Amino acid sequence: MTRIGIVTSSTRPTRIGHHVAQWVATQAPDGVEVEPIDLRDLALPLLDEPEMPSSGHYAHEHTKRWAALVDGVDAVVFVMPEYNRGYNAALKNAIDYLYAEWQGKPVACVGYGWGGAQYARSALRQTLDRVGMVVVDGAALVFEETLSTQGAVTADDTLAADVAALYGALVAAAPTEPGTGSAG
């Protein structure tokens, strides 16, 4: 069984990302266990650890809880909006809290917005590469095509195929044995 964390990255009061994340979770194939993770619930303050994340020494309980959530999954899907052609600050902050936990962790991005979050997904890829994650192709939801502004997903064949492919790629890149970090 492959455990995949589905991270809702938007923390806005009027967000719809949790609806998108829930839909992504319902698309998980047999053999995949989904772990919902909501950055709003995690409530990470702006990076406040006294040491660099690469040291692995975390002083605060919120950081230890976040690190345990990431360590507890084999792969991650970031469900993210596009804000001003970039990805949101809460997601950047959450990534910056950790370092070793990201090394070799397979990741896909499901972006949503008027242009399918193409700019945000491109910008995020640079950060994910830098922290050592194994980036696989993700999916894009476009307002008034595959996503309503209220968060209802109306998947077409392309979106369904993209989400199925991202799950397949994450499972293929996930560790073959828990705790080994070796991709299968």
From TrEMBL:
Annotated NADPH-dependent FMN reductase-like domain residues: 3-144
Organism expressing this protein natively: Ornithinibacter aureus
Protein name, entry field: NAD(P)H-dependent oxidoreductase
Classification via InterPro entries: Flavoprotein-like_sf, FMN_Rdtase-like_dom, NAD(P)H-dep_reductase
Superkingdom: Bacteria
